[in-house]
Write a structure and sequence with these properties.
This protein has 290 residues and is of the alpha/beta class. The protein folds into two domains: 5-65, Ubiquitin-associated (UBA) domain (Helicase, Ruva Protein, domain 3, Orthogonal Bundle); 77-279, Rossmann fold (3-Layer(aba) Sandwich). 34% of the residues lie in helices and 19% in strands. It has helices at residues 5-11, 20-32, 36-41, 49-63, 68-72, 96-104, 121-129, 142-155, 214-223, 242-251; strands at 74-77, 80-83, 111-115, 134-139, 160-164, 176-181, 227-236, 254-261, 267-274. Helix 6 (96-104) packs parallel to helix 7 (121-129). It is elongated. 38% of the residues are buried. Bound molecules: S-adenosylmethionine (SAM). S-adenosylmethionine is lined by residues 89, 91, 95, 116-119, 121-122, 139-141, 144, 166-167, 182-184, 204-205, 215.
Length: 290
């Protein structure tokens, strides 16, 4: 079949997408291995049969709802081009708020832990801005950790190390100046789990029990053992969880607790600083609120 770039794009139909033309262009320039501008510079260029078939196959998958990032195998985050696949969450622009707040609190030789790193998005964005920081990125999914490691290697960020860990379980006596996390925080029964891109993302990266706070509770409780005095914990959470998250920070010896809004004006990141030992109240158990 003889078909030009322009004709292939105008034939493409994605009735369920909010951005059908953009989706088609992204898929086509990925198949061709070119930049988007190429499609406009060379609209009459004829596709090979193989290129056209690949493009049509990706369009069909997109029409079923598969996320563009999984179809192309990569996603931009903080100006980094990250490999992603069905084992990793697709990094979201909202998470850049967490990165910004962490960067504001970095000392030049900070030790940072990113809990639940997924594709490595947060850890690698911090590494990009702080060459001298040492960063430990953890996840309990070996498949996600493999992608994060690949991304770090491709970007040449040698100061980022990786550890397989169920939250802080494998950290032993490691302590950080800053701990960041974008953990799962969606309620099990949230109907959004059956809509859009999230249908294709790992449930283990999204869902956190009946109230969406199971993982946040564990992280807040465990992180205090892995922060230096006055070290910071920064957590992304759901737009309706700020009050509950602030209460947990208070319960577990954090001070200077504050919640920040994302660009849409929604409260999405809460942070706090670990009190010095003298000020801490004793806790009978980390598990008291599970
Ligand atoms: C919402 S995703 C965030 C991924 C990445 N940090 C980002 O912002 O794009 C949550 C991540 O936490 C990981 N995770 C879930 N439960 C975990 C646990 N118990 N211990 C460690 N990591 C966990 C998931 O595998 C997933 O990669």
């Amino acid at each position: 079949m003889v078909i030009s770039i322009k004709a292939a794009l105008s034939q493409a139909e994605l009735p369920n997408s909010d951005t059908p033309r953009l989706d088609a262009e992204v898929l086509l320039y990925n198949v061709l291995g070119v930049r988007r501008s190429y499609l406009y510079a060379w609209p009459e260029k004829i596709l090979t049969t193989h290129q056209y078939e690949q493009f049509r196959a990706l369009l069909a998958r997109r029409a079923q709802g598969e996320p563009i990032a999984y179809l192309t195998g990569h996603q931009e985050f903080w100006s980094l081009n990250l490999q992603v696949n069905e084992n990793t969450l697709i990094p979201r622009p909202e998470t850049e708020l967490l990165v910004e707040l962490a960067i504001e609190r970095l000392s030049p030789k900070a030790q940072v832990i990113d809990l639940g790193t997924g594709s490595g998005a947060i850890a690698l964005a911090i590494a990009q801005e702080c060459q001298q920081c040492s960063i430990l990125a953890t996840d309990y999914s070996p498949a996600a950790l493999k992608i994060a490691q690949h991304n770090a290697q491709k970007l040449g960020f040698q100061q980022v190390k990786f550890l397989l860990s169920d939250w802080c379980a494998a950290l032993k006596n490691i302590k950080a100046t800053i701990i960041v996390s974008n953990p799962p925080y969606i309620e099990t029964a949230d109907p959004h789990l059956n809509q859009g891109d999230v249908r294709y993302e790992p449930r283990t990266a999204l869902v956190a029990g009946k109230d969406g706070l199971t993982d946040i509770r564990q992280i807040i409780a465990q992180a205090q053992n892995h922060l230096i005095e006055k070290g910071w914990l920064l957590l992304e959470h759901g737009y309706n969880q700020a009050q509950a998250v602030q209460a947990l920070f208070k319960q577990y010896n954090y001070e200077a607790i504050q919640t920040y809004q994302d660009l849409a004006g929604l409260p999405r990141v809460t942070l706090g600083r670990l009190e010095s030992k003298l000020n801490r109240k004793s806790l009978f158990s980390d598990q008291s609120n599970k």
